[in-house]
Amino acid sequence: MNKEAIQEMIRKKFHGHDVLVSKYTPAFPVSIEREYARLSHAYMRLLKETMEEELPALKGQIMKERGTYRADGINDVLSLLVQVFDRIQERFTEKEKGFGLRRKLESFANLTRKLTVKEWKKAVSKTLGINILEDYYMGEFYRSVIDQWVDENVSLITSIPSETLGDMRKIIKDGFLEGKSTTRIMKDIQDRYNVKKSKASLIARDQVGKLNAKVTEAQQRDAGIEEYIWCDCRDGRVRDCHRALNGKKFRWDNPPEMWYVTKKGKKVMTGRYCHPGQDYQCRCRAKPVFKFGTFNAPIAEKEGDRSA
Fold first, then answer.
1. Alpha-carbon gap, residue 248 to 258, rounded angstroms
2. Which residues, listed in sequence order, are joined to residue 299 by a DSSP beta bridge?
3. CA distances from 203 to 25, 160, 196, 199, 254 (A)
4. Environment class of residue 110 by beta-carbon count within 10 Å: exposed (0-12), middle (13-18) or buried (19+)?
């Protein structure tokens, strides 16, 4: 169906106006974020299990050397430290092979795309009364976006165990040299693990939002949408900057600049220009603003199809 035919179908929805704000606000894919967080936690548990298998030997050696006060005890412990962490890395690598991280991330990426398409179809249907083809949003561009996202996320997630092991190696070495108790050293290790586990959760929230934002922008711009209304999530996690942007109209070719407020109340511009979902851990959405003269999207063959 050509652009002229589509415009004739939607003309009455605009009631003589050129612009029509969407009657539906696309939802953030919270379920995907939640599942991604579970995936990252499961991945981190592989590391924890491996550590729990190896660290008791190191703990015992530390206590032994502390008890004998041998002059060469420090070198013995540091040598054992290297061996233990080398074994942890090797055993973790073996466990990781059967985890299927890339395959699982690919599944999440495709689910995010499907949910984003579903939300986009709802916005078009509820506002313009037409149904668009879902298959259209499975082209080379979307495959490229998903492949890039998967590559980046595999790199992000797999970097956490290496960082964690490096931090823990330093905690044990410094703790032993500083004379900390074995109990305190082990507590510091657990604390560091919890910090890295939290980082994995933050990655999940951030990356799902970014993929959702990228697909949303591609869909809207491809359909001739030039503007959107910024919509925040209206909860306590929304930062001041995004709350101030809520309800305002922006162009896809001119994103707003981000800012933050210091403890002294000073507003500081960051130099970062972002659309909804593109800022760090942003869960905001872009409500499309339809323009009669520019809207163009592939229409489903059956007008009555509301399966989306």
1. 14
2. 132
3. 25, 10, 11, 6, 27
4. middle
Tens-place pLDDT, residues 168-220: 889 888 887 787 887 888 889 889 989 988 988 889 889 999 999 999 999 99
Structure tokens at 158: 């797999």
For the chain, state the CA radius of gyration.
26
Q: By the 8 A CB rule, do 205 and 216 touch?
A: no
- Answer left, alpha or beta for residue 254, where phi above 0 means left and psi between -120 and 50 means alpha: beta
Residue 160 in tokens:
């956490």
Q: Interior CA angle at 125 toward 122 and 127, to 5°?
A: 100
Alpha carbon distance 274, 130 (integer Å): 30
* DSSP H helices in the chain: 3-14, 30-68, 73-97, 101-128, 140-177, 182-222, 240-245
Domain extents in the chain:
3-291
Residues 28, 205: Cα–Cα separation, whole Å: 11
Per-residue confidence at 65, pLDDT binned at 50, 70, 90? low
Residue 120 · residue 6 · CB < 8 Å: no
| 163, 168, 171, 174: CA torsion to nearest 10 | -90
